[in-house]
Write a structure and sequence with these properties.
- This is Fe2OG dioxygenase domain-containing protein.
- Belongs to the iron/ascorbate-dependent oxidoreductase family. GA20OX subfamily.
- It catalyses: gibberellin A12 + 2 2-oxoglutarate + 3 O2 + H(+) = gibberellin A9 + 2 succinate + 3 CO2 + 2 H2O.
- Pathway: Plant hormone biosynthesis; gibberellin biosynthesis; Hormone biosynthesis.
- The chain has a single domain (about 10-295), classed as B-lactam Antibiotic, Isopenicillin N Synthase, Chain (Jelly Rolls, Sandwich), CATH 2.60.120.
- The protein has helices at about 35-40, 45-60, 75-85, 90-95, 140-145, 150-180, 185-190, 260-265, 320-330, 335-345, and strands spanning about 30-35, 65, 105-110, 125-130, 195-205, 215-220, 225-230, 235-240, 240-245, 255, 275, 285-290, 300, 315-320.
- Helices cover about 30% and strands about 20% of the residues.
- It contains 10 helices and 14 strands.
- The structure holds 2-oxoglutaric acid.
- 2-oxoglutaric acid binds near residues 199 and 235.
Length: about 350
């Protein structure tokens, strides 16, 4: 419905200092080729080079691209296609999986959120993925239970997509561990049995793209995001006081560090402010997998990253606490982690 409006409702108009800029130069992000690292006979020098590039990018802004990641083009294209099928449905069908207040899963359009200003020009469908052998089909079951058995094929596509994203994120965790001088297994093991979130973002065309935003500026509170953008530009990252674009590359995933990993790295790696802009010509779609630890695992940096000159930057917390904070108390922005940390010091971990 949004894209048919020649003028846009006031709730979608962002304040002048947050309105999108027309020119956003391309951000310099390294392209990490994972082919060698993922092969059985990976060479130490290729691994070293990949972890060096990752370290450089994550210390600065936390964004990098991965190619030759081992995820089939067919699966990625199916995931985009299924998204189109979902968003093409009438509103009454999509509302069967309406997100409830205070929850992070379900369908949300701007009119259903808890905010009434600075609304994002988009629709989203979010669902939970659990890397848990005891409940192996969380995604597939969600589609069938919430939307009906005819959604089994969609559920199967996203089940497989999330399983692949989870495996890829654990491989990236190995590289992050190596790049921080922690053992290769440390973060991989930390995120085993992850309790993650998958989000399908749909941005309709907008007749006034210079007044609004598809996704407002925020840092991801989660640990690691793996994003696939369709062929339409929109993702921007705030680096060196300037908004910069990351143009779509169909063969690449955009990976970024989230607040939880920033805390795990004791602030060495950055969780950076980003947003999505919209345009008047084309709709845009993106697939975002947000890696999160098991809900009650305590988030604290490994010993190797601390010494007497480098004290802890954040208190112990669990993902469940940070999630609750962003759902009930605070709209995620560039200061979420610090605000959460201040809030926590008044509320000890149970
Ligand atoms: O669609 C995009 O490019 C960015 C999406 C995003 O930042 C999010 O879903 O948190």
């Amino acid at each position: 419905m949004l894209n048919l409006q020649a003028t846009i409702p006031n709730q979608f108009i962002w304040p002048d200092d947050e309105k999108p800029c027309t020119e956003a130069p391309e951000l310099d992000v390294p392209l990490i080729d994972l082919q060698n690292f993922l092969s059985a006979s990976s060479s130490p020098s290729a691994t070293l080079e990949a972890s060096r590039l990752i370290s450089e990018a994550c210390s600065k802004h936390g964004f990098f691209l991965v190619v030759n990641h081992g995820i089939s083009e067919e699966l990625i294209s199916d995931a985009h296609e299924c998204m189109a099928r979902f968003y093409d449905m009438p509103p009454s069908e999509k509302q069967k999986v309406q997100r409830k207040p205070g929850e992070s899963c379900g369908y949300a359009s701007s009119f259903t959120g808890r905010f009434s200003t600075k609304l994002p020009w988009k629709e989203t469908l979010s669902f939970r993925f659990c890397d848990d052998k005891n409940s192996p089909n969380t995604v597939q079951d969600y589609f069938c239970d919430a939307l009906g058995h005819e959604f089994l094929p969609l559920g199967k596509v996203y089940q497989e997509y999330c399983e692949e994203m989870s495996s890829l994120s654990l491989k990236i965790m190995e590289l992050l561990g190596l790049s921080l001088g922690v053992s290769r297994d440390y973060f991989r093991e930390f995120f085993e049995e992850n309790d993650s979130i998958m989000r399908l973002n749909y941005y309709p065309p907008c007749q006034k793209p210079n007044l609004t935003l598809g996704t407002g500026p925020h840092c991801d509170p989660t640990s690691l995001t793996i994003l696939h953008q369709d062929h339409v530009n929109g993702l921007q990252v705030f680096v060196d006081n300037q908004w910069r674009s990351i143009s779509p590359n169909p063969k690449a995933f955009v990976v970024n560090i989230g607040d939880t990993f920033m805390a795990l790295s004791n602030n060495i790696y950055k969780s950076c402010l980003h947003r999505a802009v919209v345009n008047s010509q084309s709709e845009r779609k993106s697939l975002a997998f947000f890696l999160c630890p098991k809900k009650y695992r305590v988030v604290k940096p490994p010993r190797e990253l601390l010494d007497s000159n480098t004290p802890r930057r954040y208190p112990d917390f669990t993902w469940s606490m940070l999630l609750e904070f962003t759902q009930k108390h605070y709209r995620a922005d560039m200061n979420t982690l610090q605000a959460f940390s201040d809030w926590l010091t008044k509320k000890p971990i149970k």
